[in-house]
Amino acid sequence: MNLSPVVEVCDLRKAYGQGSLFRRRGRVEALRGVSLSAKSGDVFGLLGPNGAGKTTLIKTLLGVVKPSSGTAFLFGQPAGSSAARMRVGYLPETLRVDRHHTARSALKFYGRLSHMDQASINRRSDELLELVGLQGRDRESVRQFSKGMYQRLGLAQALMHDPDLLFLDEPTDGLDPVGRNEVRKVIERLRGLGKTIFLNSHILQEVEMVCTRVAIMDKGMVLASGAIGSGISIDDNGQSDAIIGSAIGSMIDGKHENAAVTFDLLHPSHQDSSNQADETIRKCFDRFENSHAVIQPLTSPIATHRVVVTPSDDQAVSQSDLDRVVDDLRSHSISIVRLDTRVPTLEDTFMRLISSQQG
Ligand SMILES: Nc1ncnc2c1ncn2[C@@H]1O[C@H](COP(=O)(O)OP(=O)(O)OP(=O)(O)O)[C@@H](O)[C@H]1O
């Protein structure tokens, strides 16, 4: 597989002038030094609150918006050049297919816009109608389509000229769970075909389900970017890459994301001298340096205490500290009946980063 970046953005800036041509009222810095890259086969999720700069970034990559400074390359070609555009498909947030169309006639229309001949349009339409699950419904008026079917037709139109890179702006916005699931399946099939997909979304769980990489943006900047998944991915230079979110050995900009560790403990002499048990357990947890442990008594017959260790200063609870505390607990004959590491979700990471910007 070719691992050179499909999308490579370096220090991209965009300032929009505000007001009319005759009365300028300041400038909005929509992009303030954005750098990121996506490799072949990535499903890249662009996340951020309203006004973060996501659409401006996508429009710049499509060549619709001219950057104020910085560089953006698609397949090594300047974004917006005809060589780059030929390899790109786009599903806008609000695609409008004329209501008189059927799925098939709409695809014919878009195929002609891409200068395809009739034989290629027919062949490609058959393939795409099958891919997006609209085969057999292709002669119905789009007026009768559900939002999910309409969106899948939108995906098919974006794929007519068989692009290698697809930009999807809020592809599941406004869809019910069934529609979302259908669109998600198409994205997964496209991923299986080796397409690179760049998508904007506000729906974090959705992104967690389909994306392999994410960037979290706010106020025109990328706050964090990295791979989603378990384990550490390795980039081209053999460096370990950032990991964000769900089943995530979560790292952002090289720092481990905080994961709270919960211990449920059974102290053998708890019934007789609970104060002393509390004290022994507290001492065992004193050794954690960049973390603090909260100890609660439990009334369960199998556990007498719950200890939740929360890391501070953006440092993970270290494995060596965990190993030592386990040894200490065991040396006091305290049983560990449960040890659970709660790894932050993408939503946890997103909320932490965005609220740190507001604070
Ligand atoms: N054509 C424009 N002229 C002036 N300002 C603009 C223009 N387009 C976007 N902006 C401003 O640039 C900033 C970034 O907007 P952008 O649409 O890129 O954000 P976004 O992350 O896509 O937001 P949303 O999630 O609401 O679509 C906002 O402050 C917006 O008001």
From TrEMBL:
- Kindly state which keywords UniProt assigns to this record, in alphabetical order: ATP-binding, Hydrolase, Nucleotide-binding, Transport
Q: Which PROSITE patterns match?
A: ABC_TRANSPORTER_2
Q: What is its EC number?
A: 3.6.3.-
Q: Give the EC class as a word.
A: hydrolase
User: Keyword Transport on this protein?
Assistant: yes
What's an example of a GO molecular-function annotation for this chain? ATP hydrolysis activity
Origin: domain of life? Bacteria
The answer, when asked if ATP-binding is one of the entry's keywords, is yes
| InterPro entries (alphabetical) | AAA+_ATPase, ABC_transporter-like_ATP-bd, P-loop_NTPase
- Locate the ABC transporter domain: which residues? 7-244
Q: Which Gene3D superfamilies match?
A: P-loop containing nucleotide triphosphate hydrolases
Q: Which family does it belong to?
A: Belongs to the ABC transporter superfamily.
- What is the protein name for this chain? Putative ABC transporter ATP-binding protein YxlF
Ranked from the top, the taxonomy reads: Bacteria, Pseudomonadati, Planctomycetota, Planctomycetia, Pirellulales
